[in-house]
Amino acid sequence: MKLQGKNDQELIRMYLTGREEGLEELIRRYKSKIFTSIYILTKDQYLAEDIFQEAFIKVINTLKSGKYNEEGKFLPWVMRIAHNLVIDHFRKEKRTPLIITSEGFDIFDVLGLQDESTEERIVREQTYKDIRSLIQLLPSEQKEVLIMRHYADMSFKDIAEFTDVSINTALGRMRYALSNLRRMLKTKELSLKAS
């Protein structure tokens, strides 16, 4: 039987018995989809290549340690690994996603940045810091949808496909994320004044 005719589990078993071509076929089979998903999030080819390689190092380590038990769900498992690596990268870089209010304004634009005094700049920087810390308090599903939508500029269709949920679920998570941020902002009594 040719490698193309084998299912993912058979290829994994081949690899685990020392036949490298099993893993090579899995990579050939899914490289395009996995790499594209990473690239959509990072918008950086070199970073996407690094994360792709890092994802497969984790795959190899997990397979060799005998901890893989996804029962025929190889692609979603690798996509989750890649997705988590992208989120970890953004978290380490401390890149702040844009946050759009229900009126369609970027929340940071609402702060009014023109001709600000030193005091206004300090207040603005503190507000950014507060909002970043509030984003970190969101449940992980809400945080990741917010980051993918507003930092990576992904469509809800792409987010739904990438996180393996329905579009309605992705939309709901975004709605809850924004609602929770608004509630936390009120609780923290952050003063966001329109310019």
Set out the fold topology.
Elements: H1 8-16, H2 21-42, H3 45-65, H4 74-93, H5 118-137, H6 140-150, H7 156-163, H8 167-188
Helix pairs in contact: 1-2, 2-3, 2-4, 3-4, 6-8, 7-8
Q: Keywords, please?
A:
195 residues; mainly alpha
Tell me what you see in this structure:
With 195 residues, this protein is mainly alpha-helical. It is built from eight helices and no strands. The N and C termini lie far apart (68 Å).
How far apart are the first and last residues' alpha carbons, in Å? 68 Å
The averaged pLDDT comes out at: 78
Topology pattern, helix = H, strand = E: HHHHHHHH
Q: Which parts are unreliable, with pLDDT below 50 for 5 consecutive residues or more?
A: 105-114, 190-195
- In DSSP terms, counting alpha (H) and pi (I) runs of 4 or more, how many helices? 8
Helix fraction by DSSP (H/I, runs of at least 4): 55-70%
Strand content range: under 5%
- The computed structural class is mainly alpha
